[in-house]
Amino acid sequence: MKNKKRLTSVAPMLDWTDRHCRYFHRLISRHTWLYTEMVTTGALLYGDVARHLDFSGEEHPVALQLGGSEPADLAQCARLGEKWGYDEINLNCGCPSERVQKGAFGACLMKEFTLVANCVKAMKDAVSIDVTVKHRIGIDDIRTYSFVRDFIGEIAGAGCQTFIVHARNAMLKGLSPKENRKIPPLRYDVVYRLKKDFPDLEILINGGVETADQVEEHLKYVDGVMIGRAAYHYPWRMVEFDNRFYGDDSPARTPADVVNAMIPYIEKQLSLYGEKGLKMHGITRHMLGMMTGLPGARRFRQILSDPARLASGSPAVVLLEALSAVRF
């Protein structure tokens, strides 16, 4: 595992932060923590474990986010995560989708302080790696500071030392997951206050962060910053994180470095998993925002998302053609 400090991290995002996305992001930043998509306990206990948990060693530090509410099931899945080599197990207490609510986990767990504490304790007892919790500052119309303060207090009592706080309420009814990321107002001051009240805990802030300058501002008040969709749509913004926040003076990779490094990775993945239905687009789709703002970025996106090219060309041919369209 690399730097233990979670100064910067990329949020778990369903259908986006799969292993190919994380490998790509790791080429851009050596130290930013990466999180899996949420994996439910049922998917691991009754499904294809390798499909959900396999990842490349280059991804470290990388955390497995679990969705569930049964302490015994979560403990078993946490053991699997540790066995597969993850650096952290994260419990999802922030997703507001109705599908997740029907499974009795996600943001609705914030109503059940003691249950979450029991889940954390069960996982802590099962593994030697960090167990963390990602949650909101409130649910529905509960906007009092005491609610989230008492939630963290009880979960910390079960042994959790790291909390990733999305600085919005989760509206369990009436808003879609997308609307839940935009409509409830951001209240960063609540997260800053949590750090003051729990100085010995590691408090990370999430929600609406898009630039390195914003990361730097938040780091004046909290221990780390988690970036969501901006990391996916504008991944190259992370290239300055290593030097700026981790003091790593190694030469930053260039866009050409990253594209060229992705070629052997894609070739290997297609050779290993192509028979299982993996297509080149399943990997290149994560790279589409890489050149945003540069001349030729639109052509870069077109080439990497062109079904005919992706189906007929080799990774080297397709990626180098896309790279040649960009003017630096």
UniProtKB/TrEMBL annotation:
Q: Which reaction does it catalyse?
A: 5,6-dihydrouridine(20) in tRNA + NADP(+) = uridine(20) in tRNA + NADPH + H(+); 5,6-dihydrouridine(20a) in tRNA + NADP(+) = uridine(20a) in tRNA + NADPH + H(+); 5,6-dihydrouridine(20) in tRNA + NAD(+) = uridine(20) in tRNA + NADH + H(+); 5,6-dihydrouridine(20a) in tRNA + NAD(+) = uridine(20a) in tRNA + NADH + H(+)
Database matches in SUPFAM superfamilies: FMN-linked oxidoreductases
GO terms, molecular function: tRNA-dihydrouridine20 synthase activity
Q: Does the keyword RNA-binding apply?
A: yes
InterPro entries given for it? Answer: Aldolase_TIM, DUS-like_FMN-bd, DUS_fam, DusA, tRNA_hU_synthase_CS
Positions with a binding annotation for FMN: 12-14, 65, 134, 166, 206-208, 228-229
**Which UniProt keywords are given for this protein, alphabetically ordered?**
Flavoprotein, FMN, NADP, Oxidoreductase, RNA-binding, tRNA processing, tRNA-binding
Q: Where is the signal peptide?
A: none
What are its cofactors? FMN
Domain of life, source organism: Bacteria
| PROSITE patterns with a match to the protein in the record | UPF0034 (PS01136)
UniProt-listed Enzyme Commission number(s): 1.3.1.91
Q: What is this protein's function per UniProt? A: Catalyzes the synthesis of 5,6-dihydrouridine (D), a modified base found in the D-loop of most tRNAs, via the reduction of the C5-C6 double bond in target uridines. Specifically modifies U20 and U20a in tRNAs.
| Similarity comment | Belongs to the dus family.
Protein name listed in UniProt: tRNA-dihydrouridine(20/20a) synthase
